[in-house]
Amino acid sequence: MLRRSLDERSAPARVVSAGLTADGVPAAESAAEVAADLGLDISAHRSRVLTAPMIESSDLVIGLAREHVRETVLLVPEAFGRAFTLKELVRRGTALGARRPGEPLEAWLSRAHAGRTTMLHLGTSPHDDVEDPIGRRPKVYERVGGELQVLVDGLVELIWPADKPVPSPPGSTELATT
Description:
Structural class: alpha/beta
Helix content: 40-55%
Oligomer: single chain
Number of domains: 1
CATH architecture: 3-Layer(aba) Sandwich
Order of helices and strands: HEHHEHEHHHE
Distance between the termini: 13 Å
CATH superfamily: Response regulator
Radius of gyration: 16 Å
Shape: globular
């Protein structure tokens, strides 16, 4: 979803997907069906375990749950200022406003990070965690897929606003998702 939304904006970003538990596992059948309904083909997707080099090379790390941010920061402590849950970043970004024309992503993330503490990422939170549908009924996958589409669209609008060209630094921005 994120890659497609960024491509629609011609945003110079590369999206890398990784998780916490397994390498080489295909997407769940229900996830593939929901993705297909959203116009995405994830049949070739295989899971990868998040590594320190992935984090170190990323400008932004987006987790779907607080545990993803915690694990990111455990692997690379200095990544805390650029590691957020998707819900958290959209919420904080909405409060502070979209990235300004010419504003580096790092500066916008610094503004979004202001006031955060690692303690905020202990436990789970319906305010910050996207529900994990693994092992649940197809309706849960559908609900989560719809929620993710709204959140991803919101994030892309905040970081690469459609009505304000935001130049990126030379090369591409790397976004890692967990």
